[in-house]
Amino acid sequence: QLVESGGGSVEAGGSPRLSCKYSGYALTRYCMGWFRQATGKEREGVAGIDNDGSTSYADSVAGRFTISKYNAMNTLYLQMNNLNAEDTAMYHCAAVVGCAKLGRSGFWGQGTQVTVS
């Protein structure tokens, strides 16, 4: 189970933080991450953190977003900085074998909407 929180309406340039509480996943097996889907667009893998702690980011968010994981609390975070209108989307927390597959396979939550105005 994956449950996201922290979305909402944000002004351009804002810095919200998304959270994802997860359970039932063997951390040594899965990459945990975030993908997003804007209206009328395909899913885009945003950021992932693999079981060895390595992180990866989409070019569109590199340098602005930071993914982190707090294992003791089974919580995943996405710190988003300097948002712009193109970041408006539904953001989903996901667990997948291989970060490159974020949004294309594995498991994900219902999502949290981020709207930048």
Question: Which features would summarize this protein structure in a list?
Answer:
117 residues, mainly beta, seven-stranded mixed sheet, four-stranded antiparallel sheet
Task: Describe the protein.
This protein is mainly β. Strands 2, 4, 5, 6, 9, 10 and 11 form a seven-stranded mixed beta sheet that branches. The chain has a four-stranded antiparallel beta sheet with strand order 1-3-8-7, with no helix packed on it. Strand 4 and strand 5 form a beta hairpin. It is globular.
The overall strand count is 11
SSE string, helices as H and strands as E: EEEEEEEEEEE
Terminal residue distance: 31 Å
Rounded Rg:
13 Å
Strand content: over 45%
> Which range best describes the helical content: under 10%, 10-25%, 25-40%, 40-55%, 55-70% or over 70%?
under 10%
- Low-pLDDT stretches are none
- Structural class call reads mainly beta
Largest beta-sheet characterization: 7 strands, mixed
Summed over residues and divided by their number, the pLDDT gives a mean of 93
